[in-house]
Design brief:
The structure is a single chain. With 152 residues, this protein is mostly beta strands. Helix content is 9%, strand content 54%. The chain has one domain: Immunoglobulin-like (Sandwich). The strands form two sheets. It has a four-stranded antiparallel β-sheet with strand order 1-2-3-6, with no helix packed on it.
């Protein structure tokens, strides 16, 4: 079947107006992470989960939730985030997130873009979740932790 160009153009315009557009071929899909710290050192637990989406411009969008799970044990949930760049195997600290809500509520949500480093692209985002107690001398963290690596 052969359609005149005007008919085909009108059909495509109508489909686009109705929201029937395809995602670009280069659109990145979110990659998940899901971590629990463990309960061998304290009765509570730390849980971090979310997604990493690697963008074409070399950065990554990191979003998710960090939750201090019951029972309350005096420790808060901490999530450390590092990135690696192409051409450089070293880790670069991005953020340390915390939920010290004493296991109340649904946790702390987060959403941020990783930093740029010249023309280098982020090739991996790395996570460590654990429970820590804030003392006058600083953080005292348990030896229980869990890690995850999300690669481009």
């Amino acid at each position: 079947m052969h359609l005149p160009r005007t008919t085909l153009a009108a059909a495509l315009a109508a489909a686009a107006a109705g929201g029937l557009t395809a995602a670009p071929a280069h659109a990145a899909l979110p990659k998940p992470f899901d971590l629990f710290s463990g309960k061998s050192a304290t009765p509570g637990d730390a849980h971090a989960y979310g997604t990493v989406t690697f963008a074409r411009r070399g950065q990554a969008l990191v979003q998710g939730t960090l939750n201090d799970l019951c029972p309350a044990d005096g420790h808060g949930a901490y999530l450390e985030v590092w990135v690696t760049f192409n051409g450089n195997g070293r880790f670069h600290t991005v953020r340390t997130l915390r939920d010290r809500s004493r296991c109340e509520g649904a946790g702390k949500t987060f959403r941020f873009w990783t930093p740029k480093k010249g023309n280098r692209r982020v090739t991996g985002v790395h996570f460590r979740v654990r429970e820590c107690d804030k003392t006058a001398a600083g953080l005292r963290c348990t030896t229980d932790f869990s890690t995850a690596d999300v690669e481009r």
